[in-house]
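Lab notebook, page 48
Experiment: co-folding of the full assembly
Goal: obtain a model of how the components sit together before planning crosslinking
Operator: M.T.
Materials (sequences as entered):
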Amino acid sequence: MPKLEPMTPTSIHVIAFGMIAEKIKTKELVLEYMPDTEVLLGYLYQQFPDLKQTKFSIALNKKMVVGKTFIPVGAEVALLPPFSGG
Amino acid sequence: METKRSPKNIFVQGQISPESIAKSIANHSTKTDIGGHSIFLGQVRADEKEGGKVTAIEYTAYEEMALEKAFEIREAVFAKYPLSCMHIYHSLGEVKVGEICLFVFTSSKHRKAAIDACEELVERIKKEVPVWGKELIDNEGSVWKENL
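Observation: model returned without errors.
Model output:
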């Protein structure tokens, strides 16, 4: 299980929705700072192997990002499964 | 005259009631420059799934991002078509089969702009706004939906 640590100036706040929140069994993670989304994905896949079979996108501070993207300090990182509104 | 618009809440807890839709239509009777309205209503369907029939959809959203995205779509569609009015409502929480979960309403001087804008809004909302529907099945299971 990942450690849920108090927020520090260099931590990143990860929130998960829908099927992703179910697979990782939490809606929220506070992680030590990671420089980019590739490192973050590596960490998530290692912690939650189930995610490898799951399609999802990443939003940084509420904007969708594609490919390896720098994570600003203090960013809100969201893990978003395919949308199914309407 | 230019009015500055800001993000407004599109979310409604539970179903969008037919009464609120009727009221929304009635609210436009004083806007006499409008010549055509276009309305899209999304309704929860009782699909057959493995293990049973859908009884309801439970909606969740990344609300802050959804409101920002809805605002961005709204501004883009307002800029593209000569509209008098635009309203978007989406349900959160549980909506039973047969109930309305999405209400998109556009008005313009002539029909074409209202119809085209309404269609574009519905397509963009389903594709770009972070909302998730979980279909609840009558055997107490559930399936996450995915928009195509």
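Interpretation: The longest strand of chain A covers residues 11-16.
Next step: discuss with group before ordering constructs.
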